[in-house]
Structure prediction request, 377 residues.
Amino acid sequence: MFSLGHYTSYMQVPFISFKSAHDKISKELLEKYSALIEKGDFILGEEVKKFEREYAHFSQTKYCIGISNGLDALKISLRALGIGSGDEVIVPAHTYIASIFAILEVGATPILVDPDRETYNITVATIAPAISGKTRAIIPVHLYGQPCDMEDIQKLATVHSLKIVEDNAQAQGASYRGKKTGSFGHINATSFYPSKNLGAMGDAGAITTDDEGLYQAAQTLRNMGSEIKYYHEVIGYNARLDTLQASVLNSKLPYLSEWNYQRHKVASKYLKNLKDCTSVSLPKTIPYAEHVYHLFVIRHSDREKLQHYLLQHGIQTLIHYPVATHLQPALRHLGYKKGDLPVTEEITETCLSLPIFPGLSDEQINFVSEKIIAFDK
Ligand SMILES: Cc1ncc(COP(=O)(O)O)c(C=O)c1O
Prediction:
């Protein structure tokens, strides 16, 4: 039973639950952990190598490099491309701030652009005008699990000789015209933060690429700039994927497609239930993309009140993201001001993420939908 002040609800809907996913793997995982403790294979062990092989195969790329987290994966991708001081990188303003921090951390300048109002992803319409003589790369972020229009972005990048680094943190398993996201860029980064579609039990991430040179460079950078122990070619990072996290990911990867399918079913039910609810903007999917619904984000003009109302009824929601990146204090030095990125600001002020995860029941989805409809009556 859920209680908030005077209000009591018998149905609880958490924003996320790992239970149904963990029930499938916890026994296997405990056995693997005992074996690992015996073996002491903790740094870049067999589990990391296995995951790199299997995630590369899953992503339809030649190579995968296990990395400590998504931010490091982006940062190392940019460094592997030789991007740094004096370079500009185009990135969506509407993203998790790590996409932007990575650019700043390598000493380059992020050029923030608005996404499309309907898909929440950047398109050539806003990328093209932002290209200057200093632009070196574009970071398309497949936000909320929906692929960007990669064909158009690739064409534009080719014309201007720009590199592409996909930020695939929210879209593991998504595809665009039948090809997996994370396989379009010259080098691509992802995060396995626990709540991601493929989540570790702590911090973890990866890089995928088809380019052997970038693969070698990224491998060296993640491991203290060293290929041979105690010989350091470049200034690197301690950004290795942890072996224990790799074993979690190895146990989960075989289920990812099934879990993405379950997310898709949850989204379809919300879309059907809420189709006549005119006060709510529902997520639009592009026809040639397979959306994996990392998040199910609606928009509502009275978002704060709706969120509070749902919470009173035992329904947890979140906001991705409550402050536009260009208005965050951490990015003040970039000189953006309110009004500069109006689409980002509008989405930020109205978006609300509904519960979505494998194992969310039809009863819970119907309950959330009913309450949203009731709020507007
Ligand atoms: C779009 C995006 N990029 C980058 C990251 C950074 O990943 P991490 O938290 O693993 O550093 C995240 C998630 O956290 C993300 O959602």
Summary: Residues 2-18+255-375 form a domain with the Aspartate Aminotransferase, domain 1 fold (CATH 3.90.1150.10). The pocket of pyridoxal-5'-phosphate is lined by residues 69-71, 95-96, 98-99, 141, 167, 169-170, 191, 193, 203, 205 (CB under 6 Å).
